[in-house]
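Final report, closing paragraph on structural work. Over the funding period we assembled a curated collection of sequence-structure pairs, and we close with a single example.
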Amino acid sequence: MSSCDTPDLIPVDQAIEQLLTHAQAPSQRETLALSAALGRVLAHDITSTLNVPPFDCSAMDGYAIRSVDVQIAGTRLSISQRIAAGDTAQPLLPGTAARILTGAPLPTGADCVVIQESCERAGNDVIINNIGKSGDNIRRAGCHLHQGQLVLKAGTRLQPYHLGLAASIGLAQLTVYKRLKVALLSTGDELVEPGQTLHSGQIYNSNHIMLKALLERLHCEVLDLGTIADDLALTTETLHHAASECDLIISSGGVSVGEEDHIKQAITTLGRLELWKLCIKPGKPLAFAHIDNTPLIGLPGNPVSSFITFCLLARPFILKSQGISKVLPKPITVRADYEQHRMGRRREYLRATLQQHDDGMLYATPLANQDSATLLSLAQADGLLCIPENREIRHGDVLEFFPLSSLTAC
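Its predicted structure, as stored:
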């Protein structure tokens, strides 16, 4: 993509790269029961200590036979045993069949399972109507996993199927990284918590609940510091306290150039500002700083700006800080279902909807209202359409699109 031609603004890709160089992998670990490990990040590689399945077993309900005993369809064999899952099988006698159920161990001597739909029961005998060949409908020991095989890599965000996989090799516990502790605060005298009465000049604080939900979706431990009044001394004191208690500080608002924007000034008092003001729309007034050794990401106050910069910049930083290696959101390729002849100097992320056309391609149409203060547009959108800097858009142009589902996934 194009680079920003506005020298006082930092290009988005450069800002992401800079943030990620400061993201430190976690060092503290804890061991949890499988039932408590969902969503946590695995702290070490897992190799299997056994074969899965641990023995040759039947993949279907049917009859275990020796394939040499059935040379023609209609062969009749006596049933010498019945084997269910969990049973101990006896060696299969030549010229006999074993009734066998799915998951049951294959008896020694058998080399084929004929499915029950291809068989006909006749008292204590079975008539084999289809000739089977050696290996049919058998799961060999270790066909799913073999002893010593790597099954889970460190840095894996544990999903339900990962926990099932760990259980399948007999693990009752997993060692995971400790949760990232994040201080969350909002700034602004105008902000009122939902449920309270609005007075003149006030608005409800939508950012705080949204950002807290995004952090909790990422399985962070959130220290909720609420809303801080527009007061420099109070802001400075709050940031100092947050830096001593947490691994990361996320703030909303107070990073622009207004007289009541105190986050940036408090940062310069307590620590060092690493970057400020991005070549992005919406979301330009983003700050990244350190207070002592604690990183701070100051998000813009407008709700959509706050959401977009969290997803594109703060989220990758958090993921890397949790021990995850693949942290950047993956866009999909779409075509423009509109035209834009005005070229913007900043990279734009437009809230847009998708529709599949007759050619099978997905086409994106930006919503009419792109105001950075309205969350309704996010609720109506399928995702964010990325418009490179200094780019004129014509109908059918190929562009990158970030589905909201991928931006908010854990």
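Residues 332-407 form a domain with the Beta-clip fold (CATH 2.40.340.10). Residues 343 and 390 are 5 Å apart (CA to CA). We thank the funder for supporting this effort.
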